[in-house]
Amino acid sequence: MSQQGRSKEDLEDLTLLGNQNNQYDFNYRPDVLESFDNKHQGRDYFVKFNCPEFTSLCPITGQPDFATIYIS
To answer: Is residue 13 annotated as a catalytic residue, yes or no?
Structure first.
């Protein structure tokens, strides 16, 4: 894992990111979202996430759904 300027101590509380024992839950679980302190709080950030190959199962039919997701 590339640490991008963070020490091992900065990352030691992240237990889910990079963990290969994925549990796929169909219920909303905010406890699986891990966070870390912003080391540069005086800076403004723009975060953009593109997922061009998002797939999920339709909760009604069980058939696959495909999409592209953009989060800004």
So the answer is: no
